Amino acid sequence: MENHDVLHLQRRVADAERSAALGALAANLAHELGTPLHSIAGHLDLMLAAETLPDDARRRATIVSGEVHRLCALLQRHLRRLRTPAPVVVATNLNEVVARIVDVVEPLVHRQEIEIRTDFGPAASEPFPCDAAQVEQVLVNLIRNAMDALPAGGLLTVSTSASATSRTISVADNGSGIDPTILERVFEPFFTTKEPDVGTGLGLALCREIARNHGGDLVLDSQPGLGTVVTLSL
Question: For helices 3-49 and 94-111, what crossing angle results, to 10°?
Fold first, then answer.
């Protein structure tokens, strides 16, 4: 697979994480600013309801109230714009999606002297409604995390399975596993054990949001000394 395919995927994942960072920041700002703004709006409404309020004060309070409501609406509008896009659902062969991504990342995996294997469930090739681009985004994130956890000589396995109503993609590594004391925090936005210039701490949070937007989930199982398995269900 040509280098530009790898670079394109890495760029797409990085762009998604930057968008997620902006979304998380916007959500925090909307909460921190929204609470006092709604309080101000409530007090202004009480002032305007008072019959004894002088006309000039009423006029000014009405202007301020309008601006406060405008700021609240502006915050919500920007927050909606920065949220993860809703999935564009199309009937998809997930085995083909996984095979393509594994083909793309294979040179990077081998460069780190890691072995990558696939285990395709035959039923996962049956068309299933999902957003293939978002599934690819999740898969690249999970493979990249597994690569970061593996030493030279490590093994990374990507597998698929299917039922009548769902699909799963699992990424397993035989690395050192995750410290149990931080296991519950891995899905927290901005939480990361990587160096600041290596990870944003948003990858897993973004992947789980995509999974849940598909009606599924992202589940992580890790045993110290045995490795980690992350399973995307759709």
Answer: 110
